[in-house]
Design a protein that fits this description.
EC 1.1.1.44; NAD binding; oxidoreductase; NAD(P)-bd_dom_sf; three-stranded mixed β-sheet; 2 domains; globular
Length: 289
Amino acid sequence: MNIGFIGLGIMGKPMCANLLKSGYDVYISSSNDDTNDELSHHGATVLENHEAVVQKSEVIILMLPDSAEVQEVIVESGLHKKFNPGTPVIDMSSINPETSMEVSEVLNAHGHQYIDAPVSGGEEKAVEGTLSIMAGGDEETIGKVMPILECMGAGIVHTGPVGSGNAVKLVNQVIVANNIAALSEGLALAEALNLDLETVYDAISGGLAGSAVMDTKFPKMAAGKYDPGFKMKLHVKDLNNAFGSVDEDVIERLPITRQTKAMMTELMDDPDVQEEDHSALYRHYDKGC
C-alpha cells in the first residue's frame, strides 16, 4: 500500500520511519532536506511537492502543527482535489475538534474518508512505535486503516465520531499540563529541602506519585535541559483549543488548568522557551516566581 505522509517534524519523522520499517511504501516531500535524506535512507520516496505525494497515495497521513495549517495545506490550497478517488485521510495532528469536522465535511463531499487520530506519548514513544492513538471516525474507515495505526501505536482507541479523537486529546493535554505543574512543584520543594533530586525520584517514582510524565520529564527538569519532545508552544496551543471548545462557565471550573496555562503563556514571552520541551514549565519555579 502506498502512503503519503505530510508533516515530518519531531513526531512525524519517527512515525514515518516506523511505517517504512513495517514495509509500507511511503511518499514524502519535506521542506527540510535533512529529513528527506534521513527518511530516504529508510526507504521513503522523496517527491517534489505535496501534490506529487497525494497523487501517488492510497492513504494520506497528516501530522501538522495546528488547525490553521491543516486547513491551509489540505483545503485552502485545493490539495484535496488532487487526491486519488476514495482516499482515506488519517489526520494525526492535534487540532481543534471543530476543524476536524470541517475538514471531514470537505473531504467527504469529494468522496474521501477522514478520521482524526491525534497521539500522545511524545518523541520517545513515536520512535518506539508505542504511541497512544485516539481515533475519531466511522468504524469502517478505522478498520480499514487499523494495520497502519498499529505500526505507530500500542494503544488505539476508537473514541467515537469525527472530532472525538481531538476532543479526547484536549482532555489528555489538560491532565498532562497539570501533571507537569505538579511535578515542577514537587521538585521545587525537594530543592528547597536540600534533597538530592535523583534520590527523590528513586524513592517516589514507584509509588502513587509515579507517572509517565515523571519518568520522561524528570530528567529534563533535573538537568535543566529542555530539548523538545513536545514543544511548549504546541501545548499552549492545545490548552487554548481546550478553552476555546467549551463555555466560559466550564473554564471557570478549571482553576488549576487556568493557572498552569497562565504560567506557560508567561514563559513563552521568551521565544526560545516556545521551542523548548513543555517540561520547561519548571523554569517558572526554578527562577523563584
